[in-house]
Fold each of these.
Amino acid sequence: MLTDNAPSATVRAAVIDTGSRRRPSVRWGDRLAGLAMAAPAVVVFVAMFIVPMILAFVLSLTDWNGYSLRFDFIGLENYRFAFRNPRTIDAAVFTAVIAVVGTILCNALGLALAALVSAPGRANTVLRTIFFYPYIISALIIGFLWSALLAPHGAVNGVLAGLGAGPVPFLTDPAFAKATVILTIVWAHFGFNMILYIAGIKSVPTEFYEAATVDGASRWQQFRSITVPMIAPVVTVNLVLTLVGLLKVYDVVLALTDGGPAASTQTIVYQILKDSFAQSRLGLGAAQSVVLLVITAAIGLAVTFARRGAERKVTD
Amino acid sequence: MSTSLQDTPNLGAEALLAQPGDAPRATRRRGGRPASERRSPVAAIVRWIALGATALVMLIPLYVLVISAFKPQEEIVRHPLEISPTTFTLEFLGNAVTSSKFNVIAAYGITVLFVVLVNLFCILLSAPVAYVIARGRRKWHLALLLLFVSGLFIPGQVTLIPVVFVLRVLGLINTIPGFILFETAATLPVTIFLFTAYLRTVPRDIDEAAALDGAGRIRTFWACIFPIMRPVVATVVVLNSIGVWNDFVSPQIILGPGSGIYTVTTGVYAAVGEFSTDYTVVFPTLLLAIAPIVIFFIIMQRHIIGGLVAGATKG
């Protein structure tokens, strides 16, 4: 495919003369062309990413309501309010629980199933598809689906009633609702972790397994001593992506519980968007966003650095 | 000649290039089969029970969703797992299609339009800048790449509130151009990263040959280089399409209910949010919402999974 586009050597030789003579002007033309090619993307990116990043800090110091373009600076009042508001604290705690528990469950399930279905074969391909498909469905729709299934008169309680078990308050009891939110997220997300782990497992040279088999290592021993250390970088990617992703959970909560019952399942982004748009306090929302950004960046960096050791052992 | 850029290890590109090589690798693994054949029958049974149970947990919700779309409310509540020909009805699916709350056909059209426009603008913006970065040998080229890649670490929710401010200043809030602008910008970091990684593996000989033929840089890129980028463009289109189709927060906030423009997700929210106990509305609406993406997934499965892996292992 590449050679199709390469002109023959004779053509190349014929053009070399004129090319070298015109070089200085061509250079300038190239520079201008490069600028013209880079500029549009840079302008859009700066307008929609860099300027908003700076504005987030500025707006967090104001009482902007989102409608007018007028606002007053109120210092650190938004931050003070957010850190003292028990709703925000509860939301932050629940978000942390989702992130930690969700990350552990998604990665444990993802890695275990990856180990079971990574080999080629039609059955494994079908199983991989089945485990993975919820990931491509919008989190909002996943939330509505499970909300319908787990409602007091939903399918799950219907089946339980058929078995003689009483209705379980999946969505109506705060403790159950929290567990439901986390398990729904895990249900929809672990397939993605599994796919990444499979990609990692497939990149391990088969010679290692052959050598281990010759030495009489069991499959579990091979998994622990070859697969897990060899895919250490994939583990890091999975941990960071899941952890950082779950800190931003919103859609699924909105559809599944709408933050209830009694505000027990509100997440930090739920709180940010409610303050910003339902209550028209975008300054307060911006302040909480800034805090979320700092926490996200800190966790991402911390996990990456903490995992350095595990990854280095492999490459040494 | 500083070809050193091409020697640096490049995870994203490696992941991409590894895709076509999947087949030979698969056959190599088959060589390792004897290990699995030594497994005891008990272990095999446990394995299949675990896999079967997980598969059921994954599939039953989808099964209930599909059959419940064709049943009346009472049937849905009383016999959640069964569907009988006597109560089978297309009435509620029909109602959902013609619902005044949620115009499904219009939502499909709008969402597909958004997917196409975002993909188009994303590629038109990203490809040239990625080319400049990949071919650049100066410090500012690397700085430009780092600038774009920093966008990967900024959660969309953090920029959403100030973006509302920027769009209000520009007069684009609650408009389709405003939404397309934001959605396109959101796709730039991943796209530019993947494009740059790929372009660094494309030999410079092609550029030089085209330049000697008298083509300017812009023409060289679009006529000679861009056609070679097809695999990575496919990856990006897959990632963007799923992202835009499933996005809920950005259209909800930037377009707003006031604009009267509903995507599939904001439309479902408007239709189901109020009637979440009327299952004859909920299930048909959800079925209509997921049908296109599930069909797209089944057809494009290989590309989707490959694209997601490439997009995620970029770091």
Amino acid sequence: MKRFARLIQKLEQSNKTNDKITALVDYFNDADDKDKIWVIALFTGKKPKRPIKSALLKYWAIDITQTPEWLFSESYANVGDLSETIALLLPPAENTSDLQLHKWIEELHDLEGKDDETKKEFILNAWNHLETQERFIFNKLISGNFRIGVSNKMLVNALAKQSSLDSAQIMHSIMGKWNPYEITFHELINGVHVNTDNSWPYPFCLAYALEQEPEKLGDISEWQAEWKWDGIRGQIVKRNGELFIWSRGEELVTEQFPELYFLIDVLPDGVVIDGEILAVQDKQVLSFSTLQQRLNRKTINKKQLEDAPIGFFVYDILEFEAKDFREHPLSERRAVLEQLIGNLEESAVILSPVINCKSWEELAELRQTSRSINSEGIMLKKLSSHYHSGRKRGDWWKWKINPYTVDAVMIYAQKGSGRRANFFTDYTFAVRDGENLVTIAKAYSGLTDKEIKEVNSFVTKNAIEKFGPVRTVKPELVFEIAFEGIAESKRHKAGLALRFPRILRWRKDKKADEINTLEDLRQLLESTF
Amino acid sequence: MALIEFTKRGIYCKQGDFYVDPWWPVDYAVTTHGHSDHVRFGNKYYLCHTLTKPIIKRRISEDLNVETLNYGESIVRNGVDISFYPAGHIIGSAQVRLEYKGEVCVISGDYKTEDDGISDVFEPVKCHSFVSESTFGLPVYKWQKQDAVFNGIKNWVSDNIDAQKTSVLIAYSLGKAQRLIKNLAGNVPIYVHNSIANLNEVIINAGVNLPDTIRIMPETTKDELQKGIVIVPPAMRDSRWIKNLSHPVTGICSGWMQVRAHRRWQSADAGFALSDHADWPGLMDAITATGAEKVYVTHGFTAAFSRFLNDSGIESEEVMTKFGQEDDEENKVDLAEQNDNK
């Protein structure tokens, strides 16, 4: 545990990726193999068995420190993290322990099925053997996630550097299905498990936003242009007679989309295709708000199937004839894909069309029509490019159309959580409706730290009312809110809801009487039908 | 009748007709210490500790009319006996003890209970009523012994030197900077920003024993700085000057660094929980030691701290002041730094 605590400290003591990778490499060089497995598991969101509810941890901490419950809550509000609040609140430990991370996890595992008294004794004893930072980690093992600014990519790069193995291969391995209680470190990074598992997906190739003129990319003939679809990125895997659908969040979502089940009979084995899950009717893409009716549902009824039929727009092939196909250039991959998908007539699976243009100007003009087909712009992919793992600058670009914007005034503010626990960072915005203000969106991103501090001090000084954590503030600060779409909504007082609202900029130059009206938004809503 | 009242201008003693740390100009300002949220420009007379006098003259104006007291000494003003006791916050920081017809009130200003090696150690004073800060008045704020914190800083510095990085510590010019200098002095040379060097000069001239430091000059090389410890005030934090150093890494020394959320909020690399304010046990010990019947709680977690005192059987009341609200102190000190730099 001490070695892991030192790693966390090193990771926290730098904002620079290189320093973090160095810390990880150092760790993988000298930590225990079984500990390493768990560090990879924890950093990629796999959780150990958790035989104790976090409410019990809190209760026991309150009990042994004799802290009134309300004071615990005040402390928690300031710290923003339960594990950390408990770690800080406890009296200093009287002993130390050299028990390794994986041993702690095993001991926790063994508590399963024991009575609360036994569990309590174990936890209290553990707390009394751990320093504050170790306690924090220990509590996290039981009740939380390790969000400490280590992305999968960073972790993989460190492992690749330490083991001299290929990073794409390692990404594969750790994204596959594996059990940290059983696998060895050697097996994991060499990917022994993924060969026996039919489901494993490839890391998605991601694009950067195009911030320059497209002319700077060179001759348009070297590029493939496609529409950028506004749905759920998906990867469909067909191997050994089994079909799997993965979402971008590395989640298996196969069950949610019965319209795509037929692929099990149509696709040959050893095929992985990349595309966008969308609401589609008569081969036309429907709005994102239609798709939304189908997301994150446990069961789907007939009406939902009819109202929001699902389709899959395919744009790439990553595995063909059971071989990794990603090193082939896009032009070749596209040709294979057209042969494979092109003949699936009348189906929900459609080849995402390529836009043929002779010049960048022509393409720029077409781009302006994106919204009419529920696209959010254009994707540019270099014809000679490989399918990269993750985000890589240069070969794939998203050239989105500008978002919609509205000027709105802030009327409520709320404190954030975690890193933002002590600042008012979550704001609710309103537009004018005659004499009244009506709320249209909540947003909590888009300001710099400095601006947040400024808004924070405004809120502190101009709070009118207090509803729990929410402050009603004088409607004075005007912000430009960007959003991707607009839909009717019965749940909101305004009768409409904005999709993906975020703060574009603080309009210090505008006064509250210069903001947009609800009527402006209604007109926009009508124009999008 | 109570000895003090809380007015728009600040803490006022009617019997003696003077204020303690007022934030609007008054005739007679009793001053606990030299931080800018406690002492302002424009008062006719100032009364402060002997060591605070050169500091406020340097920071505010040479023209101030300042009377001084040493710890334990007293003067009488309109029948009210005023005396100073060490507050342990920074050099020259004082608790103000007022006595009138047997009634005793102590205004702590800012204080900490741990010996920092450079300020006189906090001394509890028996009183009937006590005005306490509560900057860190939540039980999650319990400081490690300063030796442990300084060992952490020293290890960080030596790791940085090995990795060819420049260690930059960000600390208030008055107080935190001198505490760092006193406790980090040793094998590694310490380089300080102009505003800190100026204050050091004032403090050394007043007779305080401070280890040697090197004032950063235009001709100081990046190579020299990389092999030393660089201390700069908060106003310099995001400056180009730091970015241009050789592989700079920044560290903030503040009690807020106790909590991960605050550490991550700062645009610094490392955070060290080192505070010149009392932690939760320190506040509780100090208050118990005064034996006060009534405790007024000013800046910080006033509501929670005051409620806890009341629940514990110590009568307490929250008081709104303009003393450093949560993280405002830093900003205010920043303004002072800017004045220094002019």
Amino acid sequence: MSHIVNSKNGCGFFQVMITLCLFGFAFDLRSETLANTFFDMSLEELADIEITSVAKKPQKKSFAASSVFVVSQQDIKRSGVTTIPDALRMVPGVQVAKLDSNKWAISIRGFNDIFTNKLLILVDGRTVYSPFFGGARWDTIDTILQDIERIEVVRGPGGTLWGANAVNGVINIITKKAKDSAGLLLSALAGNKEKGQLSIRYGGDINKNTQYRIYAKGFEKDRAENGADDWRMGRAGFRVDSEPSQQDKVTIQTGIYAGEEGERAISNVTTPPFGTFASKAEVFGSHVLLRWDRNLEDGANLTLQAYYDRAERKHFYVSDKRDTVDIDFQHRLYRFWKQEFVWGAGFRYIGDKALAGTLMSLSSEKRSDQIYSGFIQDEISLIDEQLILTLGSKVEHNSYTGFEYQPSARLLWKPYDKHSLWGAVSRAVRVPSRVEQDAFLQRRQIVPGVVLAIQGNRKMKAEKLIAYELGYRFLEKQFSFDLSVFYNKYDNLRSVEKSSTTLPGFFPLILGNKLYGETYGIELSTSWAVNKNWRLQGGYSFIQMQLHKEVLSTDTTEEADEGDTPHHQFNLRSLWQMTEQWKLDTAVRYVGRVKEASLSRKGAVVPYVTIDLRLAWQARKELELSVVGQNLLGKHREFRGSTVDTQATDVEPSVYVKVDWHI
Amino acid sequence: MRLFIFILSSLFFSQSIAGENSIEYKIKAGYLYNFTKFITWPENKLETFNLCILGKDPFGTILNPIEKRLVKGKPIRLIRIQKISEARLCHIIYTAEPSQAGILISGALTIDSFPLKLTVGESKQFTYQGGMISFFKREGKIRLHINLQRLRESGLEVSAKLLEVADVYVGGEHD
């Protein structure tokens, strides 16, 4: 209080008076209009407004100056999806292509592949990016979908906060706190493609300040007509959230999964098995995570997080086991007026063991790596609530490429309440994977007795990106509109070069960093609440990729990489609450052509349009019955070929019936 | 002069406190209006839909514009009452005072002339002890706690949508 008096004292009495009058006047005006808008808000909106002042609770304001799309629990539920990859199809600018029942190629802003190595995925703060092949193993990323609070999709680089491999985007899957998943949930579904799925969750109180939930889920999916891609999986886990004191929050969570995944594999080398054959992969994983949050005085905040993660995969190609230990520390402080500092430090240990399979061996069976990192970010309010500049950088040291730095500058301008404009320039890197450094990969027999092989390269450098982004956002109760434009410049991209080594029986190629290129595009999303019971959501994205060889490069793969990403994607969703008990939700998607130009990956995937439908009946407060139809316009192919040779299957129409019982 | 500044600054200060508080009460006002949409009262024979504030009124002027709104074609009337005995014509009874809350609960529980009234209070204690809906804070957000058993016993119909955003207490053990 005295602080206010002192600062105003210098201006003189009248000035104080005028300021106060103006302030009071402005305040009254605002309260009147605000009061009215609050009456028109929905229950969900009211339940979501934060009343704590900015100073008390950290908000991810930097998000506002980037291209973000949030998939809510409501969106997941009403889309009728049964997997997280399928939930991402509703996000404009995310390319999702299914290879077979258990494999997806998912990317943002290009470079779509089964191993999209430029996209970072986190589940409750734990990275699930596999440094072995590079990329997320989507088959292992799952939980009870009803327990997901939201999925935050950041399009564009996130290296400044999240570190390496967050080159083209970050996907944060955030599950509900234990207290938001209380009670018993039983959910079961079955259909023509979904042979069966059962989820059980129970949440309750341990004491006044501590809640828990425990869950288990299992499913079986049918193979495609031309495939061998049956898929069985089970998982279980628990989460405990506690607030032992006013300042402290503690979270403990753990999970375990195991599964068996079929596929039709292709092998054209000289050692058996030959040709196309059915193969099964076994996966297993577990994790335990501990997070401690403490609120300090003056709105400062400390977070300490540690986790251990184990992932195993047995596959005819190659088998790997990996242990990850990660410790992260973050400190948020408000050092000066109008500035908000966040800094943090982290350590990660990754130890793996790879067993050579039929097609791949590694130069060292075991390898362990350490990553040390630190970051700092400063958010400066140049004009209060109107012009915010965010500057920051991450610096990390990894055993593969040494020091990497990833700075960014973001500017947000909010001239009026509902409109905001932002721009950003950032640098991000993608660190080579274990396979890219150490593998010896047999591709196919080119003439009898000679096999084309690709060798990893310990001298692989990090791929680098400089990204330029611009965005505009209009946010209103009934209508919202979000537009992002990007121009990305990549350097040191992975290439496949002729090798100078001679190996009897092989025609060796070696990995290098001799490609560079640009991508550019737009992403557009819009949402319109036509009336209280009907909402429409639409999205469109366009991307163009141009990859080039350096002068001395002998690469022949760049065209293929360009072609894997469709230029145009369009989607439209309708969420209609017909009556109190009945809901009808529809989604239409268009995905453009995926081209394949490389010799080993012939053909093209034609553009397709597809429709999903969901009809739900809230029979009783605790019981919901629904029927879901997916890909109703007939079967189509979404992806062809991949780094690992799995035969693509058709995505066929699927219909299932679901029962949700929650007490 | 100094005194002046002091008075002004304290005005300034209280203004800003009201600023922070008022968001909270605006949300609560929004909820109160939403209750009229997601809870069904039997046919209303009165000319108005009566929203009563029992005891101290923490809303100030925030709630006043609600009188421009309708419930099933009848205008909402804001009535400030001091005693539970004045609540005979109320459809919703809200109280911010713990002392009044106790009386409201026991009144609503014991007096037969009290069915079909929605009781709204300011702490989970209120709902645990027999109030129907209370506001509470979780992670800086205003959330609802609903005593479903009491609400159903009262003869009011509640929509699943309201229960969806609320924490529902179904009776029995708590804490």
Amino acid sequence: MKILGLDTSTMMTTCAVMEDESLLGEFSLSLDMSHSEALVPMIGELMDNLEMRISDMDGFAVSKGPGSFTGLRIGLATAKGFAHVTGKPIVGVSSLEVLADNMYGHEIVVPMMDARRDRVFTAIYTMEGDRWIPLLGPDALPVEELIKIIKRDHERIVLVGDGAVRYRNEFVEGLGNRILFAPGSLNLSRAASVCRLGMAKLAEGRSDDMFTMAPEYLRDSQAQRMQKKKR
Amino acid sequence: MMLTLAIETSCDETSCGVVRDGREVLSNIISSQIEIHREYGGVVPEIASRKHIEGIDVIVQEALDKAQVNFKDLDFISVTQGPGLVGALLVGLSTAKAMAYGLDIPIVGVNHIEGHICANYIEHKDLEPPFTCLIVSGGHSYLIDVLGYSSYRLYGRTRDDAAGEAFDKVARALGLPYPGGPFIDSLALEGDGSAIDFPRVFLEDDSYDFSFSGLKTAVLNYLNQMKQRDEEPVIADVAASFQQSVLEVMVEKSFRLAKETGRDKIVIAGGVAANKGLRDMMENRGKKENVDIFYPSVQLCTDNAAMIGSAGYYNFINGKVSDLAMKVMPNLGFLD
């Protein structure tokens, strides 16, 4: 089974092809440009190198959120477009699990993305077998609240993602030596992990409906939040 | 014979259609979000983008089904590249790129404003350039000479608000629902257009440019003065007088350009081309001066994919094909 995976939930534009257990190729670029400009040409390069076409894929996996709202939509629109024209299945995976995969093998992993205004998109995961089980979240939490929860519930944890970089000082101050930070080389999402997580879901028949699939933003738009306040 | 799938998501309508050879519309599905945005008094970009990604593939499929074609029948994809809301445009463009690459067919990025002109080619099968064209919508006001398909010369544009924008702002001041243009148009039918003497802004004698912000301010001032005097304005008269001021200037300049360039056809394009008052005023004057007036049906005046497919076709046959790295251009102008 060959799967094309993509992730545009963080600064990284990344795509990969896996065949069963093997990674055939992966391209990632963190550029100061829109995912929209980079993504399809990058997939084209990857396909050319692998001498494959979109129609050779057996399925498509994409990070469905949380993350940059615009980024998520670019990824989903692209993956849905491929699934639509080929008639092959599509599966969405959690972008937090994708980040957590960078720290595969650790017992408690807390991936996080900056959600602005001192909040992070985050979850606390533990590993059972080869899958991530959320002990908390996924949710958009104030950093302060997340620190309290970790302090209360966990002895040793690993933090990964740009949220951990952004609020590094707060975490060090609040949690001292209970935490391990992922190195800079592992702080952004990798499409190979999207393939791995997606393939596991597809194997269980848990594909998404290409027509209705939408990002999981975990946050309303600002206008919706203001409207709710008024009520 | 060339078949295109067209995708348009520049604002609050998710629209997809199938067009043959630039003129024949096999399908033109428009899913409007207007009721959702009305609650907020205008289009909320983030909500528009969310609705687009939820609906886009459903609308594509509806367009194919209605046209009774399959993906493999398509020769190229047409997609709105700009102007518009960046997040909204990105959904359409990303979908179009994936489909074009997945099907291994070319993609053509289309200027939304050019699409509005081409809506007339769909409506009027025998309409051919050259002609004078007035393009008026919520975001744009242009007066141009159309020399040929995909060949234009700019003569005038707005120096401040777009015509449709002035309509919407005045409508808001009058307490009318969003979007206000159509409400002003229907109210104007009941009112007296000469009741209040709002300014007609013609600018310099030889200018084809427009300016609507002074007129908008004059209407707001008038309403304020009435309020201070505790008088109740006659809303229908305000709407009619405001509309009269806008239309007189647009019609006068359009006919002046047609005369200067020797054209015997004037074409109206864009959302405001649905305005009954504008259509009537153009046609009345056209009869007197032997100028034929063209405008699209109301449905083709609004944002729709078929017009993008028509413009895409004329670009395509003129060799204007885009590459997969193309960007959305939210601030794309027209001929400037």
